[in-house]
Write a structure and sequence with these properties.
The protein has 249 residues and is an alpha+beta fold. It folds into 2 domains: 124 residues, Jelly Rolls (Sandwich); 94 residues, Arc Repressor Mutant, subunit A. It is built from 8 helices and 8 strands, in the order βββββββααβαααααα. Helix 1 runs antiparallel to helix 2, helix 3 crosses helix 4 and helix 6 runs antiparallel to helix 7. It is globular.
Length: 249
């Protein structure tokens, strides 16, 4: 549902989404905070995809065209804000930390009785707490930019089809008919990442999906291309800020 222009936040959606469920591309007049209290949520835009595991949220700026995809059974929550409620000045989708206090706001907000004379006052207080609790995660977000160059698009599709395959840059370049140096330059120019850095991102995205679907840590690491469980856990913790067998703090 599109943001309705009210100055107070509104729980626009709180529901369980089975794995694979999608919400078609749309946009809102105001900003949104979306998060999954269970499962993994992806926000897909024209410029890239942002992925948030359980207990992480994603800020979606006003008028940014986006779609949602659930990985694993996902408890999906959204909070709509007015177009001027942007205390962090965020201009693109951003992964946010969800504090225990922020996690309770949708529950508290949706439990209010609209016919109660004190509801508007309570909503105003909840809105102030919500805005005060917004905080980007300390780790770089798991973000998969959308390639523009056809050669880079082909290379990314090849890796995304099997992220765990042990293809080096030269082999990928040969398969898509481009020079190794050219492909390396395209990754740097369009994504601001090297080929190994981007491959790690796509592997971690697959890892989040598999873990949300109930795959074991060991099986997930193996399928995503790590040689052993310990190396997978180490890379996952360094990039995500928590171990694959635990929830984000």
């Amino acid at each position: 549902m599109a943001e309705n222009g009210q100055t107070e936040p509104t729980v626009t959606m709180t529901r369980v989404m089975p794995g694979g469920t999608t919400i078609a591309p749309h946009r809102h007049r105001g900003h949104q905070v979306v998060y999954a209290s269970q499962g993994v949520l992806a926000v897909e835009t024209d410029t890239g995809t942002w992925i948030a595991p359980a207990a992480r949220a994603i800020w979606v700026p006003a008028r940014v065209r986006h779609a949602h995809r659930a990985h694993g059974t996902t408890n999906f929550h959204t909070l709509a804000l007015g177009p001027h409620a942007n205390p962090l000045g965020l201009k693109q989708p951003t992964v946010l930390r969800v504090s225990p206090l922020l996690r309770e706001i949708p529950i508290s907000y949706s439990s209010l009785d609209p016919s109660d004379a004190g509801t508007a006052r309570r909503q105003s207080r909840l809105r102030a707490v919500l805005l005060d609790e917004l905080e980007p995660v300390a780790q770089p977000p798991l973000h998969l930019p959308t390639p523009r160059d056809d050669r880079l698009t082909a290379a990314c599709a090849l890796i995304a089809a099997d992220p765990g395959a042990h293809r080096e840059l030269a082999a990928v370049a040969a398969e898509v008919g481009v020079g190794r140096r050219t492909l390396s330059r395209l990754f740097a120019q369009e994504f601001g990442m090297s080929f190994p850095q981007w491959r790690t991102q796509i592997r971690l995205e697959l890892a989040l999906r598999l873990l949300a679907e109930g795959t074991s840590v060991t099986a997930t690491g193996h399928r995503c291309g790590w040689s052993g469980t310990s190396s997978f856990v180490d890379v996952f913790r360094r990039h995500m800020g928590y171990t694959p067998g635990s929830r984000p703090a």
